[in-house]
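Recap slide: MgsA AAA+ ATPase C-terminal domain-containing protein, sequence and predicted structure.
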Amino acid sequence: MTTRNGLAGDEVISALQKSIRRGKEKDACEFAYEMYITSPQFEEKLWRHLLAISVEDIGMGNPIAALMINNLNMMRKEFQYNESDRAMFFFHAIRYLCGSEKDRSSDLLKNIVIKSFAMGYVPEIPDIALDKHTTRGQEMGRGSEHFLHEASKVIPQAKVENDYKEQYEEIIKKYDPNHVVPSTFVFNPWQV
């Protein structure tokens, strides 16, 4: 595909992304504008790339970037393709991305996992995954107390100003699922 001004579409897309990676705001905006004026379909491709870039190249450098770009993408749809205000949203998105601290580790991790699987790697189920929500965990007798103290452990644990864990611990000491009121709502206990 070629653009409105005869440039190779794949090269324009590549130049857009490389410009954003290097924080070259004006260059990135020029390549984006070339995509925009080519066609509404190429504008869609532009936004798909901006969304991907917000995770692939910005990533943990600015975790809010993906939300910002998605919101700008939604906002631009309130304007017709031929309204100049519509273009303002990708200009703003690019400025935001160029100015953000960048981190490519999500993409690197994705590629590590994909290529490892392609070479035959299969993950092993760790013991911590076997809890009251799995068949093997139930067969091992792992119930709510195990879940409270082991399977629901989070790292790092935020400092909280409540005693809900202690309250729940007291509840499960008294709770018997075989002796509940008839109107008790029953949740599906299975993960899949």
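The chain has a mean pLDDT of 96.
Residues 127-174 form one domain.
(End of recap.)
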